[in-house]
Design a protein that fits this description.
The chain contains 5 helices and 19 strands. By secondary structure, the chain is mainly beta. It is globular, with a radius of gyration of 24 Å.
């Protein structure tokens, strides 16, 4: 297979494709790249080939440029939240559904840890998810490893997720994977108006009140939230091999939750309630937090993002003429192996498939 020569002045006629738009593409993942990821909004991918210059004394110009490191292929994509369908594909049924920690299957199952990502292409003007649509050459990223995952919600916008993937392999080849067009008249994405927050001291039980632990504020009107998990990886190579033989997670891992809200009322508090004093040890309380995006009366299930024994990292307050006074609450939780339920673990990050409306 040779590098292609792209014609930059091709005569455009009836048989020439004019462009590629979202209608003609679809994203697939899984161990064999056959599971269609739903509600995708954007896909970006690239590769870099690092080289080392060879020079010597007595000669100004380089003698050679040598490839001595593995190439890096990067893929990132965004999708609208629609239950945990995509999460179960990317994180596994147990982690995606919430019976195990979010990282459990990524770290323990070879079919979840390393997936094939395929960006299929159909004929111009034809929906890729149409039954029997003719498939063209698409991009195939094999042995893709998850490197980041983030969930976001804000006022006036549909909640989304962003995913980052790394690999050392990419080709343009046949993508025969297919999916099913969405025809439901019920809600097919989650709504920002169904996003609620729950909290309790670690070891307690979530109630039905909408609240968050905050130092100095007792009424907040949340405007946005972001939950993110970075999964840094180490590429391990050895002499005698041209490519890496493993790409492993760099532990320990932590997940963060950042919540921005308009301040409505303030209350007496003291930083010593977290850090202690010269004569009193730091209380540094832990909290169980949950951002629950409930389902509508019909349609896709909801999604919950749960932290067990999260710590308050800090608050950032902003106030200026012409703007509402606001605060950003930051929390962090240690991500454990996840080989237990949310109730049984001492600390961790768990998803949840929500089948109720409140």
């Amino acid at each position: 297979m040779a590098i292609q020569t792209a014609d930059t002045l091709k005569t455009v006629d009836a048989s020439t494709r004019k462009r590629v738009i979202y209608q003609s593409e679809a994203l697939f993942a899984g161990s064999s790249g056959t599971s269609n990821l739903q509600r995708v909004q954007s896909i970006n991918y690239n590769f870099t080939v690092p080289r080392q210059d060879v020079n010597q004394y007595g000669q100004l110009g380089q003698i050679e440029r040598v490839i001595v490191e593995v190439p890096t292929v990067s893929l990132d994509f965004d999708y609208l939240l629609a239950g945990v369908t995509n999460e179960k594909i990317l994180l596994g049924n147990n982690s995606g559904g919430g019976t195990k920690g979010v990282i459990y299957e990524v770290n323990s199952s070879s079919t979840i840890e390393k997936q094939k990502y395929m960006i299929g292409l159909s004929a111009e003007g034809v929906d890729h998810l149409s039954a029997g649509s003719a498939k063209k050459k698409g991009f195939v990223i094999d042995d893709g490893f998850l490197t980041s995952y983030a969930w976001n919600a804000s006022v006036g916008e549909i909640p989304t997720a962003s995913v980052g993937v790394e690999s050392t392999k990419m080709e343009v080849g046949t993508v025969s994977s297919t999916g099913t067009k969405e025809t439901s008249t019920d809600p097919v994405v989650l709504r920002p108006g169904n996003c609620k927050f729950r909290s309790c001291a670690t070891g307690g039980a979530f109630g039905t009140s909408d609240d968050l632990p905050a130092l100095g504020f007792d009424i907040l009107h949340v405007q946005s939230m972001s939950v993110s998990l970075d999964v840094p990886r180490e590429s391990i190579s050895r002499l005698g091999d041209k490519f890496e033989y493993a790409r492993l997670i760099t532990f320990p891992l932590s997940a963060t939750m950042s919540i921005e809200g308009i301040i409505s009322d303030q209350a007496a508090s003291n930083l010593t309630d977290i850090v202690g004093t010269a004569s009193v040890a730091a209380p540094d309380p832990g909290y169980d937090l949950a951002c629950k995006i409930f389902k509508s009366t019909a349609g896709v299930n909801g999604l919950g993002l749960r932290f067990k024994n999260a710590k308050i990292d800090g608050h950032s307050v902003s106030s200026s003429i012409g703007s509402n006074k606001s605060v950003t609450l930051d929390y962090t939780v240690q991500v454990d192996e996840g080989n237990s339920t949310f109730a049984a673990t001492s600390a961790g990050f768990y998803l949840e498939e929500i089948t109720t409306t409140s």
